Amino acid sequence: MITYIIRRLFIGIIVLIIVTLIVFFAMRLLPGDPLTIFIGQQGASGTMSEAQKEALRHEYGLDKPIMMQYFSWFGGLFTGDLGTSIYYHEDVGKLLGKRFPITLHLGLLSFVIANLVGILLGLFAGIRRGTWIDATSTTLANIGITIPQFWLGILLIYSLGLKLHLLPIYGYTSPFDDLWMSTKQLIMPVACLAVTGMAFIARQTRSAMLEVIRQDYIRTAWSKGLTERSVIIVHALKNSLIPVITLMGLGLGMVFGGAVLVETVFAIPGIGRLLVNSVFAQDYVVVQSGTLVIAFIVIISNLLVDISYGWLDPRIRYG
């Protein structure tokens, strides 16, 4: 197991390096110049001399050759120096540190709700195949897969926020400051982020349950006189969770990726909204560092998923 984890971590490091290369060069293929955008937004484009512009370019390292810029930024990762934001004029590490807890709160809450509700819907649909429970669960799952997150967010804002005035339509409040306001502000964003993952989990759980309950060991459990709860929870559900766990790992990446859209729609000051603003401002180091954080989360979540296979199925061994 230890050898397998070390090998996967090594592969993960290679993937992170490839991600940094792709994002670094993709940002520099965009037309325009970050300093020109920054100076224009400050209203100083007509008063700043060329010497001052060159001094700013030197300050942010934009006068170096492109490969030196990459290695300078990449080398800073080992010392915790992620660079300085051009647009926000702030240390990128501190900037991400303030935004990351917000995205983590939103993402983990959506992830937990999506998986719990999805597994329950799929479980009941599988053991009650052909009933109204199955039909309702399948219909909800199909709707959840097809509906775009940003469009659902706009619908919720219009209906629950603007028309019914039940929920606030934007912003974020820490639960440590005001738990009730934080809960109200998170209901719509969490629903948008959770709906797609919930739908996929429900469909996969239903499919896996239908396959597992036909196995010989399930019939043996019934013949021993075990209760329905024992047969379903102890024997059927545990053995049907392996493909579901795989989707959970992918779903965690989808949650943090989807936060880019949802945080923009609901004006939540997390990493997703920070990345959107930084892309428009061509703030290279913020986009590179934020993407690196999300890629790291995805890689670690996939590693945890692979490790969990051995607990769910003792027949799986890692070399």
Give an overview of the whole structure.
There is one protein chain. The protein has 319 residues and is mainly α. It has two domains: 59 residues, no CATH class; 209 residues, MetI-like (MetI-like fold). The longest helix has 38 residues. The termini are close together.
Q: What's the gist of this structure?
A:
The protein has helices spanning 2-28, 34-41, 50-59, 66-77, 92-127, 132-146, 149-163, 179-212, 216-223, 228-265, 271-281, 284-312.
Topology of this protein?
Layout: H1 2-28, H2 34-41, H3 50-59, H4 66-77, H5 92-127, H6 132-146, H7 149-163, H8 179-212, H9 216-223, H10 228-265, H11 271-281, H12 284-312
- On the 0-100 scale, what is the average pLDDT? 81
* DSSP E strands, number: 0
Assign the CATH architecture of the largest domain: Orthogonal Bundle
Shape: globular
Keywords for this structure?
319 residues, mainly alpha, MetI-like fold, 2 domains
